[in-house]
Structures are given as C-alpha cells and as structure tokens.
Amino acid sequence: MTLLAGALLLGACHRVADSEPTPEGTTSPVTTARNDGRTLRIFMWSDYIDPAVVKTFEKRHGVKVVIDTFESNESMLAKLQGGGASYDLANPSNYVVQTMVRARLLQPVGKEELHNFGNLAAGFLNPNFDPGNVYTIPYQFAATGLAYNAGRYTPPVDSWALIFGPDDRVKFALLDDPREVIGAALKYLGYSVNTGRVEELREARNLLRRTVRKKGFESFAGGPEIRNKLLAAQIDLGQIYVGDLLQGAAEDDRLKVFLPREGTTISTDTLVLLRSSPNPGLARTFLNYVLNAEVSAAISNYTYYGNPNRAARPLLDPLLLTQRGAMPTDEDFRSGRVEFINELPPGTTPRIYDRIWTDLKSR
Ligand code: N2P
In whole angstroms, what is the distance from residue 224 CA to residue 111 CA? Predict the structure, then answer.
C-alpha cells in the first residue's frame, strides 16, 4: 500500500473498477487486434526486462522480438526523431511523453483492447502526463540513488555532498542523463528538480562545472555501466537508477545504495506505441502480455524496479517491497524528498537545461 499511496500523490485521479486479472493467452484471447508481422521491435531502457518473458512471448506467438536499448530519454528521442528506426514500441519516462505527443510520434495504445489494463494500480492510472492513458501504460519506476561497493569504500554520510562537496579524493561517476544530473545538483542546493528559476539553475550549473573538474570525476555513464564499475571496484561512488544497482547487489552483496538525505529524483517509465509502428496489432498483444500479473511480476523480480501492477503485487519478491529506492515511502513523497521529474514547460526553461548539459559534456 505504501507504493500506492505514494503514487497517488502523482496527481492521479480516478479509480478503475477492481477486477480479477485476466491470464494472458491461456484462458482468454490475448487481444482482439490482429498480429500483422512476425518481428516486434522495441526500443527500451537497458536491462529493463526479463529475457525469459520475451522468449515465452516469442514462442507463444511464433514471432521474433528485437530489443534495442538506450541510456537516456534524450538519446531515445534523438534516434526516434532522426527517423530511420522502425520500432513498434518505445519506453519513455513520464517527463518526455508530452514532447513525443507534440512531435506526433505516438498513436493511442487502445487501452480498451488491453484485457489486462485493469490489473494496474489506481495510483498509476490517468496520470497528469497522459490524461486518460491514451498514449501510455505505466511499465516500471525507481528513484535514483548514490551507490558504493562496501569492499572498496564506505561513505561517511548519506549526502550528495560526497560528490558536490569540497572533498576531491572520492572517485565517482554520474549518470549520462541531463535531468538526473542537473536534478541531483538542484536537490543538493535545496531546489526543485523541475525549477525554471534562472538564478537556481545558474547556481546548479556552477556547482556542476566545479564537480566535473574535480580529480575524482571519472565519467558520465549509463546505469548498467555504473553498476559494472562498482562491481569491478573502479569507482567509490556512482549515481544510479536504484534497480540497476539492485541487479548488481544480487550478484555481489557488497553493492549498496542509498537515497541522499537532501532528496532525489524519481520517474515512471512507460510503454508507448509509435505512430510509425509496422505492427500495431502485435505491439498491442505485447502490451497486454506485460500487463499480465505473472509476467509483470517476473519482469520486476528480474530487474528490481518498482512495479505499478496491482495484480502483480502478491507475486513480487519481498525484497522489492522493502527497498526504499525501488519503493519510496509515503513520507519520502510527502516531504518532497523524492520528487518526480516533470516535463518542463515549452519555452526558455528546457533550453537552459540543454545549455547546462552541453556545457558540462564539452568540459
Ligand atoms: C534501466 C533504467 C530505467 C530507469 N536500466 C530510468 N528511469
């Protein structure tokens, strides 16, 4: 219930009727849509699905699923807007969904056709970034934390100061993700991760400039890459999406993660149907499949990400339900300590964020 109550603070509104989850493909038809092609192409965050679940889908439907991965929303958007890639489904975070709608990249998911849509927890339905769930289904989520390998280094405090403070000995990596990096600096300074105030953004930019000039700054990297650097004890600290770290902790229990005391970011990652999808029928069959309780639970039990599926909850690994990074508490949300990244209003603000990022990456 913790997760649900927290998620309700998202600005979600209405409740769907409680109904029994419909098992996919066994006792009921998967979807009324026809399957138009034999290959489904998905553009997804890396390490974000259980390969066994993909294999089962391929076998059951006699199709091939090709998954290409990305490490940030911005790189995903650049590839999709560049054209040329013919994906059926993509996996944007909440805060770029409206950008994709405006760019006419999406078509409705057709939730009426998805028998398993009713499995979703009410707190995740009808979100402010997609009223009525026209274009998105919630897939997974997690907060972003700071991680370390206790075999190499134990942080003296649970604070972003380890990275942004004056100490120059700690070796660290940051996510190659503009909203996460700028968001972390803003949180450290006591500001909102969605601020449009020029003075606050200038302060964050100056802090980040000093930070990437530190001797200890190792690199900008994707989540799984940071996990691997921690596993190999190449860095002391890494900013990381919590699920990516927990995947590593399952392998080596010296890997630890915490949510810094000044607060941190969270986002919901969604699945969307691209307007240019060559196989919208097969894509909807897949959407319905991942909404199945067993399938959804298998995905989160493999990836260690937070799960928005109410019917899947009893099947989740208990570890997931107690991990604060994967499942922030009500108090984390209420206090603003864990803050959702929202889309910035079109205009000058997104350009300021872009400029800060370009400036940092060119240093
Ligand atoms: C998976 C990262 C997903 C979290 N590697 C991004 N919000």
Answer: 32
**193-234 residue pLDDT tens:** 999 999 999 999 999 999 999 999 999 999 999 999 999 999
Phi-psi region of 171 (alpha: psi -120 to 50; beta: other; left: phi over 0): beta
Rounded distance between C-alpha atoms, residue 23 and residue 30, angstroms: 9
Of 45, 149, 49, the C-alpha closest to 93 is 45
| Residue 241, ligand 1, Cβ within 6 A | yes
The helix/strand/coil state of 47 is coil
Record the pTM: 0.89
State the CB neighbour count (10 A cutoff) for residue 81: 12
Q: What does the pLDDT read at residue 15? A: 27
What confidence tens digit (pLDDT) does each residue in 137-148 have? Answer: 999 998 999 999
45 close to ligand 1 (CB < 6 Angstrom):
yes
Ligand 1 pocket test: which of 42, 44, 48, 227 has the largest number of ligand atoms within 8 Å of its C-beta?
Answer: 48
Q: What's the token pair of residue 322?
A: 């107690």
Give the gyration radius of the chain's Cα atoms: 20
Cα separation of 130 and 97, whole Å? Answer: 7
Write out the H or E segment, with its range, that includes residue 29.
Answer: none
**Overall size of the chain counted in residues:** 363
Report which DSSP code applies to 220. Answer: E
Task: For residue range 160-205, list pLDDT tens digits in order.
Answer: 999 999 999 999 999 999 999 999 999 999 999 999 999 999 999 9
